[in-house]
Amino acid sequence: MSGLTLREKRIRMVAYYFVIPALLFFILLNAYPLLTVVWDSFQLINMLNKALSGFSGLSNYVAVLQNENFKAALLHTFIWTILSVAGEYVFGLITALALNQNIRCRALFRGIIIIPWVVPIVIAGMTWTWMLDPNFGIINYWLVKMGIIAQPYNWLGQMNTALYAVIFVNIWRSFPFYTISLLAGLQSVSKDILEAAAIDGAGVRVRFFNVVLPQLKSISLTIIFIHLIWTAINFDFIWVMTEGGPLYATETLPIQIFRYAMQTYNFGYASALASMMLGFMMTAFLLYYFMSVRKTNR
């Protein structure tokens, strides 16, 4: 600061004055609640038994890990996250490639494709719950009419299909985000390089895997990483459609946190599980960040 002129110092001070309100807002809206959750994870906080209070050490974490449904919820979270993100990326890439072609009414299709993404999760979840209903759902009606199934099936009511049905709906709603992002990346791919590769005898498949996909690597890694976090902590879609049922078949870790906090009113357990998820997400973010910095330096 000593080498700066008086005018530059004033400009910096003005910049600080503009940043401080945003910083305070961030602290009040995000940092303080997060620190409160971490602190509560080491406390005995049960709204049904106010006499039970005080410092608990790691007992909340031990109790959460020993819960009979924890391993199943962890597995469901993994399946839910990986299959959702993989399906979203595949469908997003396919539709982006299709919308990048010189087809008639391309602008119209580009506008229509975004509709699932802008539909509120509650409305989308309730609509698909109705469509998948075994008694009057249109999905079962179509499948029976086409001869794919012999009779209506309770997709959300059976333990072996409930989670995959919700994953399918989540993919339907989220893949347009990938489509728009990847479409922007495809439009930045040099046509001269593609034409040169075609002249050299490279086929469509070779051009796609050796020219197009490497150009999409950066944006692909970014949206995949973001959605891994978004999907892992997603609560509302599963809760709207199945509430974690039947018989905990679709219960994920966020659903379990909700049960601890809002059904058994044990905020110590809820905070402990939330802190564990927060720690995992922060670790994943730091690994991704340092790997990105390492590649950039290379």
UniProtKB/TrEMBL annotation:
<feature type="transmembrane region" description="Helical">
    <location>
        <begin position="14"/>
        <end position="35"/>
    </location>
</feature>
<protein>
    <submittedName>
        <fullName>Carbohydrate ABC transporter permease</fullName>
    </submittedName>
</protein>
<feature type="transmembrane region" description="Helical">
    <location>
        <begin position="78"/>
        <end position="99"/>
    </location>
</feature>
<feature type="transmembrane region" description="Helical">
    <location>
        <begin position="111"/>
        <end position="132"/>
    </location>
</feature>
<feature type="transmembrane region" description="Helical">
    <location>
        <begin position="267"/>
        <end position="290"/>
    </location>
</feature>
<dbReference type="InterPro" id="IPR000515">
    <property type="entry name" value="MetI-like"/>
</dbReference>
<dbReference type="Pfam" id="PF00528">
    <property type="entry name" value="BPD_transp_1"/>
</dbReference>
<keyword id="KW-0813">Transport</keyword>
<feature type="domain" description="ABC transmembrane type-1">
    <location>
        <begin position="74"/>
        <end position="288"/>
    </location>
</feature>
<keyword id="KW-1003">Cell membrane</keyword>
<feature type="transmembrane region" description="Helical">
    <location>
        <begin position="219"/>
        <end position="241"/>
    </location>
</feature>
<comment type="similarity">
    <text>Belongs to the binding-protein-dependent transport system permease family.</text>
</comment>
<dbReference type="InterPro" id="IPR035906">
    <property type="entry name" value="MetI-like_sf"/>
</dbReference>
<keyword id="KW-0472">Membrane</keyword>
<feature type="transmembrane region" description="Helical">
    <location>
        <begin position="152"/>
        <end position="172"/>
    </location>
</feature>
<keyword id="KW-0812">Transmembrane</keyword>
<keyword id="KW-1133">Transmembrane helix</keyword>
